[in-house]
Amino acid sequence: MTPASVPSPALGRLRWSAATSALQIEGSRSADGGGRSIWDDYLEAPGAIVDGSTADPACDSYRHPERDADLASALGLNRYRFSIPWARVQPDGRGRGNTAALDHYSRFVDLLLERGVTPFPTLFHWEMPSTVEETGGWLARDTAERFGEYAAIVADRLGDRVAHWYTLNEPAMTTLQGYAVGALAPGKQLLFDALPTAHHQLLAHARAAAALRTRGATAVGLVNNHTWVLPLHDAPEDHEAAFVYDLLHNRIFSTPLLDGAYPDLEALGLPPLPVEEGDLTAIGGSIDFYGVNFYNPTTVTASTAGGPIPFDIVPTPGVPVTGFGQEWPIMPSALRDLLVDLHARHPQLPPVIIGENGASFPEPDTAARVDDADRISYLSGHIAAVAEAIDAGVPVEEYTVWSLLDNWEWADGYTQRFGLVHVDFATGECTPKASYDWYRDLIASVRTGATTSAARR
């Protein structure tokens, strides 16, 4: 795919977006009375962050919102996905909202609208007030109610101008990495005892969706990190391992949203979820679109360790990798196959939004114009895969690059760079990469092609 060509007319149907999250770019963690979050707690543990860094100043975006709005606008984006941190708005996770923080996000919404970019906020991108985690976090049902109250506070302030919302980002990663194995905040290692967090997050999404809709929202959805699961060997035990992993990573989150029911966990010997009367009705009717974040496939094999986990995650053979090495294999066809399979499982699938897709590669730390051909190749392949899925009947309506900016990459600190824009974290200087220009030109060429096709019809 070249910037000047339109590989499929299907791409003319897409809206185009780029994404960031607050913790990863904002800095100024305590500015305007912001509260402490689970990540402030997590990064204090010795060795928790690979390079020992913190999320301050990151990209310093809290002090430079005009810069980010200008970068989004210059790309020609339809929408810009950003997040609003719960702990800034409700420092203690309850009570009235923090006026200064709400003023900031209200201003940022206006900056985007002035530039013709639709704001698309995420209400929970892994940042929970520490006080909420102290009372149980996502293990506690009450957190769902508190999240609904937080959503109402934000929508009361922004709902007159914001109609499109993501509630939660990647609940699978919160459950699996945050509560099951401890690789992300809050750093719990509960294994299968983490599963109640899946239900409480989906219930929180439903509570937030209801609050948003009563305040003018027209499009509310959740975005999960999906992966295409591959068995290492064509053997019954590996196919069973792939089935279990697919259920835990993908279907425990997608099925209740799309079908109003959970997969049969107890048949696999897993603990039942804490579902109460009315929960699944609320969850099943809660989305206007279904969000899919996708980065890589996952290859598994049957575990030989004899422990409680029946699968091992192993390298995907025969494919290139990103800057994360074998943890993040590159296989664009896996995105197409995932989307086609999702539609086959759920024929009444609502509109699909690709909420994140991108890759990290080694790049210089100091300010530079980066010729990131590897990122362009990654994005080109995955956008082509989306086009193939659309041609197969999958109702994809939007594509989002992760990320607009290089950022603080959670437990990997500043060691991984995903951005279309290079950030020198020592000086704050921002330099668009070759991929920024490529994406801008692609968007323009797709629009030109779509306009031409429409004229011919």
Q: What is the global morphology?
A: globular
Order of helices and strands: EHHHEHHEHHEHHEEHHEEEEEHEHEEEH
CATH superfamily: Glycosidases
CATH architecture: Alpha-Beta Barrel
CATH overall fold name: TIM Barrel
Count of strand segments = 15
Structural category is alpha/beta
Radius of gyration: 21 Å
Protein name: Family 1 glycosylhydrolase
Organism: Microbacterium sufflavum
InterPro entries: GH, Glyco_hydro_1
Keywords: Glycosidase, Hydrolase
Describe this structure in words.
By secondary structure, this protein is an alpha/beta fold. The protein has a single domain, classed as Glycosidases (TIM Barrel), CATH 3.20.20.80. Helix content is 39%, strand content 16%. Strands 1-2-3-4-5-7-12-13 form an 8-stranded parallel β-barrel, surrounded by 5 helices. Helix 12 runs parallel beside helix 13 (373-391). The longest helix is centred in the middle third of the chain and has 24 residues, at 236-259. Mean pLDDT is 95; it is low at 1-6 and 451-457.
List its salient traits.
457 residues, alpha/beta, TIM Barrel, eight-stranded parallel β-barrel, three-stranded mixed β-sheet, 14 helices, 39% helix, 16% strand, globular, disordered N terminus
